[in-house]
Amino acid sequence: LRQQRMGTYGVRAAWRRLPQ
Amino acid sequence: MPEPINVTVTTMDPKTTGKQLFDHVVNIVGLREVWFFGLQYVDSRGYSTWLQLNKKVTQQDVKKEKDPLQFKFRAKFFPEDVSEELIQEITQRLFFLQVKEAILKDEIYCPTETAVLLASYAVQAKYGDYNKEIRNPGYLANDRLLPQQQWEERIQNWHEEHRGIQREGSMMDYLKIAQDLEMYGVNYFEETELCLGVDALGLNIYEHDDKLTPKIGFPWSEIRNVSFNDKKFVLKPINKKAPDFGFYAPHLRVNKQILALCMGNHELYMRRRKPDTIEARE
Known about the structure:
The structure holds 2 protein chains of 2 kinds.
Chain A: E1 6-10, H1 14-17
Chain B: H1 18-29, E1 37-42, E2 48-50, E3 72-75, H2 82-85, H3 89-104, H4 112-127, H5 152-161, H6 167-178, E4 187-189, E5 195-199, E6 202-206, E7 216-219, E8 223-229, E9 232-237, E10 245-248, H7 252-272, H8 278-281
Antiparallel strand pairs in B: 1-2, 1-3, 4-5, 5-6, 6-7, 8-9, 9-10
C-alpha cells in the first residue's frame, strides 16, 4: 500500500535506460 | 470530411488489459503512430483520466453505471512539431479534429484573427477550393467554425486564398498554426494549489487566472527528478543550488496522473533527440 502512495521518475536517469 | 463518430467497444473477457483494448482500437482505425494516443474515461468520481495499458481494464476505476464501459480515443501526447512528426494521414486527421474541437470549445484560447484563418483552412479541408459559382452566401451557415457565425465573409476571403490546397494539406496548415497557440498540447491540472501544465517540452506553473503565460517553466533538460509522496509532488532541478519545487495536489490520484504524463511526454522527448527517430524505427 505504501508503495502505491509514492512514485518517482528520474528524468535525467531515463536517458541511460534508453535502448541504444 | 467525415464527422467524428462515437465508437463503443465491448469485451467479454474480464482479464483484458488496457493494452489489448488499445491495440484493438488502433488496429481498427488503421493507426500506426500509436504513441501519441490513449483511451480516456470518466472515473467513478467523475474525473476524466487515461486508461493504463499495463493493468486490466476491470481493475481500473471506470464509471460502472455506464454499460458498456465508455472510452474516448484521443491524443494524449502532442508532437513538438506537427509537420515533422505526424506522418500518417489518419494521425493528421485525428489531431486536426481534436485540436479544432478544443479551439471551438474555447479549451484552447485562440485570438479572433487566428480563429478566422484556422476556420478558413477547416473550410478548405471540407469543401476544397472556393468556387463562387456554387458557394452562395450562407454556405458556411451550418458549419461549426467559430464561436459566433457572423464571420463568413472574412473566412471566405481566406478560403479563396487557399486555392489548390488538398484536404490533408489544409488540415496540416491548420495544425501548423494551431500548434503555436499557448494552450495547445498542454495538459492542465487546475485542482492543484498552483495551476500546473505538462507538455512535450516540460512542466510549467501558471497562476489560475492566466493559463497563457507560465510564471515559471521547467524544461525537461533542467529537471533531475519528479516524484510524489501521497498528496505532495516534488520537482528537483538539475542545478543542485536551485531549490526543489513542491506543491500539494488535492488527491493522490492527481499526482499519479501528473507523474504518468511526465513519463510519457519525456519518453517521447528523449526519442525525438535520438538520431534513430520513432518514425525511422517503425
